[in-house]
Amino acid sequence: MRYSALKILKEGLTGNRGWKPVWREPEPRAEYDVVIVGAGGHGLATAHYLSKEFGVTNVAVLEKGWIGSGNVGRNTTIIRSNYMLPGNEPFYEFSLQLWEGLEQDLNYNAMVSQRGILNLYHSDPQRDAFARRGNAMRLAGADAVLLDQAGVREMCPFLDFDNARFPIKGGLWQPRGGTVRHDAVAWGYARAADSRGVDIIQNCEVTGFDIENGVCRGVETSRGRIRAKKVAVCVAGSSGRLMEKAGIRLPIESHVLQAFISEGLKPVIPGVVTFGAGHFYVNQSDKGGLVFGGDPDGYNSYAQRGGLPVVEDVCEGGMAIMPMIGRARLLRMWGGIMDMSMDGSPFIDRTPVDGLYFNGGWCYGGFKATPASGFCYAHLIAKDEPHPTAAAYRLDRFRHGAMIDEKGVGAQPNLH
Amino acid sequence: MIINHPLLGPRDAAEFVYLGDASLIDRPDWEDPDAAEKYYEYLYLRDNPAGLHRELWFHEQGDRSWLVVTRNTLTHEITNVELARDVAKAQGRSR
């Protein structure tokens, strides 16, 4: 069923009796060409691009809970491509381009809103670093504008420009960045993949892999054995737990990251704003709540909740750049589990087990990557070679010293 | 979280910084013929368990001792705290 304004009008006049479920609830079949483990944003995007761009439709997406019940349902909804390193920037720019055409591609309203992202700088050296990053972005085809203090003041007059410790000197502005309605991304990809025959199977937990002589031939699940020519793991946050069942140790630790939302307010923040001297980022949802976050808690965790010291740290960051935030009341906060990799960059690669593919290590930047991650993973699965923009995301890159470390802090995941 | 320091008693975890898996104590021998491979595994690969995890915490805003904390990553419950020095010595290290 195609969605359109005309369809809404017709259904409105006929009592909304013609709507159908957005995806089917099929029983798992005994065998598929490709089984994707994890129906989050990345897994569903992979299924969509596999079926649409690469003609692979005999696909199942298995999900332990309900679709989108992981990090696609609990992030801060920001999209951007303001990376610097050659291994990253073309990939994230590809992702931003896919976001720009997403709703037409899926025929689904994901509320893609390119309201811009502003990274504040607070010192001369930081200005130089941002100028360099902006140049790297533009070389990769992205957009970046270096603003001075007057430029930022025009856009965000409410900021504390004359803060005694971290005065705001300007910012790096990416106009094409913005926000997306995160749940709609999962639902839109699920609907599009389902319409081409992909089976989305919820409440089906993978409990093990069927590996014979170093070849993966399927998965064991809570709903029985499912054979597959190719098994594609896409469970960021739980990667360590799942890949252990295939006997693979990963360069990943699982950490908890908290996010926060205030009560609904009238429009006050034009785009996404980030603090350059601490870790704080904020945008305003279309419902009016201020959505914000900061550093992860910093220790290994599979518990989906964090501690109060980080709440304090995040709120201090907010108060440092926009004291008016102190007048808003915090409505909700929550924690999600992320794969923190050893260089802060992700993996889209084959594994030492034939027929077993791995996608993970997204740290706390996986949401913006959703379309390109799905596209590049589908490319890898269908053609057995990496997509050019994801060629650096090898699982064994640390063995060769080919890390992609945007922050340059080394093999300590809680610092990325 | 409260970490029950063996010398100082219960301290707020915010006084500490976290390094990671306690296996980082077991630095490989650089003269080993497989040193490159062993260092790759030592430095970059992790067990990342869901459940009991032995990990290194540094009491930066306290007595600057390194601790080995046994903590459940599913519940954040801390069940054992040792001085990292004692753990290393028990494994045959000189210090």
From TrEMBL, chain A:
State its location(s). Answer: Cytoplasm
- Any one cellular-component term (Gene Ontology): cytoplasm
Q: Which domain of life is it from?
A: Bacteria
Q: Which cofactor does it need?
A: FAD; FMN
Q: What are the residue boundaries of the Rhodanese domain, all occurrences included?
A: 34-78
Q: Name one GO biological process term.
A: tetrahydrofolate metabolic process
Query: Which EC numbers does the record give?
Result: 1.5.3.24
Keywords on this record? Answer: Cytoplasm, FAD, Flavoprotein, FMN, Nucleotide-binding, Oxidoreductase
GO molecular function term, any single one: nucleotide binding
Reaction(s) this enzyme catalyzes, per UniProt: sarcosine + (6S)-5,6,7,8-tetrahydrofolate + O2 = (6R)-5,10-methylene-5,6,7,8-tetrahydrofolate + glycine + H2O2; sarcosine + O2 + H2O = formaldehyde + glycine + H2O2
One Pfam entry for this protein is DAO
Q: Which InterPro entries match?
A: FAD-dep_OxRdtase, FAD/NAD-bd_sf, Rhodanese-like_dom, SoxB
Q: Which Gene3D superfamilies match?
A: D-Amino Acid Oxidase, subunit A, domain 2, FAD/NAD(P)-binding domain
- Which class of enzymes does this protein belong to? oxidoreductase
Q: Which protein family is it in?
A: Belongs to the SoxB family.
Which PANTHER family would you find in this protein's record? FAD-DEPENDENT OXIDOREDUCTASE DOMAIN-CONTAINING PROTEIN 1 (PTHR13847:SF287), SARCOSINE DEHYDROGENASE-RELATED (PTHR13847)
Kindly provide the name given to this protein in its UniProt entry: Sarcosine oxidase subunit beta
Origin organism is Ferruginivarius sediminum
UniProtKB/TrEMBL annotation, chain B:
GO function terms (MF aspect) = sarcosine oxidase activity
Q: Record's InterPro entries?
A: SoxD (IPR006279), SoxD_sf (IPR038561)
Picking any one GO biological process from the record gives: tetrahydrofolate metabolic process
* Transmembrane segment boundaries: none
Q: What is this protein's name?
A: Sarcosine oxidase subunit delta
List the source organism.
Ferruginivarius sediminum
Classification lineage: Bacteria, Pseudomonadati, Pseudomonadota, Alphaproteobacteria, Rhodospirillales
